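It is worth pausing here to work through a concrete case rather than discussing structure prediction in the abstract. The textbook approach is simple: state the sequence, then state the predicted structure, then interpret. We follow exactly that order.
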Amino acid sequence: MTRTPVHAEPGQEAGPSFTLERSATGGGGTWQNPFVERLIGSVRRECLNHVVILSECHLRRILTAYFAYYHRARPHLSLDKDAPAGRAIERPEMGRVVQVPEVGGLHHRYARQAA
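Step two, the predicted structure:
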């Protein structure tokens, strides 16, 4: 079981009338990891709330397609609206903008297509 360390031993004085005590946290609880919680929320809001899952195999296919989209095409604010895999800049000379369906049409990305 993982325990979060505290900066003082139980009963050790940290101020005139303030003492610190160790507190155990749950080991492996996703609600205690903000990065995992954010990812789970994104998957629910952007994917699972919009489809009816028919089987475990179907769920795996949907999640595989969503994570491919999430890493390759979805803009992330923390990356200056770029995707984790990175995207090349597409100049207007490269052609017209076309819509490319992702995750079975649930999401779309836009790319330039040569005329």
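Step three, interpretation. The two ends are 59 Å apart (CA to CA). The longest helix spans residues 56-72.
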